[in-house]
Amino acid sequence: MVAQEIMDLIPNRYPICYVDYVDDMIPEKKIVATKNVTINESFFRGHFPGNPVMPGVLIIESLAQAASILILKSPRFYKKTAYLGAIHNAKFRAMVRPGDVLKLHIEMKKIRSKMGIVDAKAVVNGKTACSTELVFIVAERKEKI
After folding, report:
1. Where in the cell is it found (predicted)?
2. Which of 6, 55, 74, 96 suits 36 as a labelling partner, its CA being 20 to 30 A distant?
3. Which one from 30, 34, 47, 95 is the annotated catalytic residue?
């Protein structure tokens, strides 16, 4: 799945779209997506000068966007919007820096009529940078994407 297909599913746009492409997906089960981290990211100007590190909250946002793609690809949620409802047990284990390729691994745990729960892991060079459980609330889309 490439950029245009991603934008058809989720409302995020530049400069806050953090999924470059989808590597693999089994609808309603799991997804692996990629975020290429570059020095041109606007947040590196202030986080931190001389020691650029991707903010943890943006790693979580990247995971949330990948999870949204998985959730919204489901026929029951297609053309809706997934809102982040909760973040549980987030752990940061490694820094993410410019030049890193962030692999976003999402596995569906539960799916109900208006919500989904996923296990999420961000990986760089085979090492876990962040792991968490994310809860999503799915609602009707307010505006056309």
Report:
1. Cytoplasm
2. 74
3. 47
